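User: Sequence in, structure out. Go.
Assistant: Echoing your sequence, followed by the structure tokens.
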Amino acid sequence: MKQLIIFLFTLTTLCSYGQTLSNEKSSSNFKRVQIGINISLDNTFRKLKNNDGSSTVDDIIKIRNENETFKSGYTTGLNVCFNIKNNVGLETGIQYSNKGYQTKKEYINFALANTKDPNYLSFIYSYHYIDIPVKANFTIGKRKVRFLTSFGITTNIFIKETQKTVLFYSDHSDKKTTQTNFNYNKVNITPTISVGIDYKINSRMNLRVEPTFRYGILKITNDPLTGYLYSAGLNISYYFGF
């Protein structure tokens, strides 16, 4: 009987000790603060709007919509994530983004007059911003691979717009980039939403892959014809916890 009591006491102590270690391990795996870097490869475009209601602006919008299309852009930068608990976190940071649109390749008539002349012409318009995002992250699951969704607001601070002229020849293309001087609004606000996966590499490192959609809700100019920038892309992030 005495031996049985000693055995049960020892077993209970070991179980309690094991549970304590498990809790300590679980607690050590939770990182309150994470520092990250990201790059989002985006397809970007604009939505045009008639500010004064004139038929002339409507005609211009129709022509531009027929001749302009998406361009490749990106968003990249540093992030800080403050985890409230294992599946909820708040994130901010500082980003650099390239948004915009481009014209379709346009045939140049005078190309037939001289074989050394370009055959086609295209323009690429890029809007450069410093972005300050604030968003909430939510994860579902307890395994290495978890489902992730996030939403938030990004403040966009305008830096410049550039215009790239692309001349297409029969055997090569030439590109020239210049900065424009139009009076663009200095600040925009962009709601952002994403869904994807969070892969836990180890107790400190995470890798996230998120299809992401961004839409600027403020017009880029105050002119009779204005636009709203938006993008959709794949955001890839790496985080290190402390």
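User: And one key feature?
Assistant: The CA atoms of residues 205 and 240 lie 5 Å apart.
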